[in-house]
Amino acid sequence: xxxxHAVVVRDGERREIDAAALVRGDLVLLDMGERVPADxxxxxxxxxxxxxxxxxGESSPVDKTPxxxxxxxxxxxxxxxxxxxxxx
Length: 88
Hints:
two-stranded antiparallel ribbon, 88 residues, mainly beta, 3-stranded antiparallel β-sheet
């Protein structure tokens, strides 16, 4: 079985980790064509569509837009696409 990885910013450093090791507060960086490694908040995106067929059976990609972050979320650096795992 293949282990899914995620590129995150943790403690201010970019690193690649096993997706199973994601914790609340990790900022997940995604590029086009990558799998979303966890249930996450979308902080910034441009024309983002997600193939949810494996989860919902939806036949077409679904548009996704940024939403509000939880109170207390630290300011995010600009110039990158940042993601925050949702609360569990």
